[in-house]
Design brief:
The structure is a single chain. By secondary structure, the protein is mainly alpha-helical. The protein contains 20 helices and six strands. The protein has a two-stranded antiparallel ribbon with strand order 1-5. Strands 2-3 form a two-stranded antiparallel ribbon. The longest helix has 24 residues.
């Protein structure tokens, strides 16, 4: 169990981070009431940077849950034509770019300030979190500014690094961070400032190993010899295991702007009203869960408040459809109790579910990552069980075992292809509403699951689910020389290097 964090200390430090964190543009006016950069310490910035990491990791991906067949717009709303036609431009979701780079800037400040002060715990924590976010950026955009980022004086127009080279360097940076973390001293104050892993060096190292494995898994379809990296993962204790999610808890309150981020967006407002009125279950996801008699249905989704058919209260909408009062907000299923449990729930960054499914695929491929499970079959079962546990399904392990026995039995998968198909399908289900990014990555990497329904918006034409996003319009405004070196980006065909 993670240590309970001193909430007063954390909130105080986050207020300091709000003042300091971080000055992304030069301010020629000297305000004597505002602390200068030279007196801002790593500990003042880190809590807010970690909290923001949770937000940019888990929020703002409703569009991707729509693309991946998890969610869809309520029939009370017009769908986004740009999104549901897959005809996305460089203004589509450009906040993903700027928001993630803003957090990375803060983490860079933590790393550099901690390094200068000899605070290796903070330095390593920042490096590991940066690797997590840079992989996100590469997986969405491909080549991005990396080595020249965050050096505005030296590189006012940072160049774009090759995506595959970034992946390689992230492995090296994670190795360095693990070494620093292993030798770090963790003070009592550090356990309070670390709102992600509460000062646990073990969890930070396992988080780093999980990111290392995720980098390797993502590159399975390209020429890639993972032997050396796998040996490091095993030697350093393996990946996050059951109940070891990397998540944030700063002491959330049931007040405006103080609830856990995912809950505040998709759960209940402090007034008790639904925070989310737009997104509802996708019919594809609902029908799949029903047909497999999956007990997780009522944890991924809520019963409709006023279903048109009293005999069936779990109802989804069809992605890309026009508004229809029969499938309005009250007639369809909202986000469920397993995802929006309580206002002060931890905000996940990397879940144990994701980690265990990565481990299961590694074992299926014959990779030794120091797993506590004997083989891929056992590892797969552990990952499915973890989904049930994480969602709060009663008698979770037995419920998961019964489900697998009838609906998702490893023994019925005769060869590698069948086993991989089963594993990725169950990973897809387990990540419903939690991590559509990982589902999109698997879909692009492997074409699995192979029956994700396309939008029925007539404006879609022959377009498919995009293989990436365009560079944002802000880059063409402030970094035009560098972004133009990337040529013309086609979101239907300009694949990320690992998408083969």
């Amino acid at each position: 169990m993670k240590k309970i964090i001193n909430k007063t200390v954390v909130l105080s430090l986050m207020l300091s981070a709000g003042v300091a964190g971080c000055n992304k543009q030069l301010d020629i006016n000297n305000n004597p009431n505002q602390p200068g950069d030279d007196v801002i310490k790593a500990e003042n910035i880190l809590p807010n940077a970690l909290h923001a990491t949770g937000s940019v990791t888990a929020l703002g991906y409703g569009w991707l849950s729509n693309w991946m067949g998890y969610w869809s717009a309520s029939g009370s709303f017009n769908p986004s034509t740009e999104e549901s036609s897959y005809n996305v431009t460089n203004t589509f979701q450009e906040g993903k770019w700027t928001g993630t780079y803003n957090v990375l800037f803060d983490l860079e400040q933590v790393e550099q300030k901690a390094k200068a002060a000899g605070e290796t715990f903070y330095q390593a924590a920042a490096m590991i979190t940066k690797a997590h976010l840079f992989q996100f950026l590469v997986d969405i955009y491909g080549n991005v500014p990396y080595t020249q980022a965050f050096k505005p004086t030296e590189f006012p127009t940072p160049a774009y690094d090759d995506a595959q080279a970034i992946y390689t360097d992230l492995q090296a940076k994670l190795d360095e961070a693990i070494t620093l973390m292993q030798g770090a001293t963790v003070s009592t104050k550090a356990t309070e400032i670390d709102v992600l892993n509460a000062g646990s060096k073990e969890l930070w190292i396992k988080m780093a190993n999980t990111i290392k494995l995720r980098l390797l898994i993502r590159a399975t379809q390209v020429n890639n010899n993972p032997t050396a990296e796998l040996a490091k993962i095993k030697a350093n204790g393996g990946v996050l295991q059951t109940t070891q999610s990397a998540d944030i808890n700063i002491g959330y309150l049931n007040d405006v702007s103080k609830q856990s981020p995912f809950y505040a967006t998709y759960g209940l407002l402090p007034s008790g009203e639904d925070a989310n009125t737009f997104y509802r279950a996708n019919q594809y996801s609902i029908e799949s869960l029903k047909s497999n008699q999956d007990p997780r249905l009522r944890y991924f989704f809520k019963p409709a408040k006023s279903p048109t058919n009293a005999a069936d209260s779990f109802i989804g909408t069809v992605y890309g459809s026009e508004p229809n009062s029969s499938f309005g907000g009250d007639q369809t299923s909202n986000i469920g109790q397993g995802l929006v449990r309580v206002f002060n729930q931890p905000q996940w960054v990397i879940t144990s579910i994701e980690s265990l499914f990565l481990q299961a695929e590694a074992q299926l491929r014959g990779w030794d990552v120091g797993s506590p499970y004997a083989d891929a079959a056992a590892s797969y079962a552990g990952a499915v069980q973890e989904s049930f546990i994480w969602l709060g399904v009663p008698d979770a392990v037995n419920a998961a075992n019964n489900y697998m026995l009838v609906r998702a039995n490893w023994a019925n998968a005769a060869d590698f292809t069948a086993q991989l198909t089963l594993l990725i399908r169950q990973k897809y289900v387990a990540l419903t509403g939690i991590n559509p990014q990982e589902a999109w990555n698997d879909y692009r990497r492997l074409g699995l699951p192979n029956n994700i329904p396309l939008s029925i918006n007539t404006a879609r034409g022959s377009r498919n689910i995009p293989v990436r996003l365009s560079y944002p319009s802000s880059e063409y405004a402030v970094n035009a020389k560098s972004v133009q070196t990337q040529g013309t980006i086609n979101t239907q065909t300009s694949t990320i290097f690992w998408d083969k």
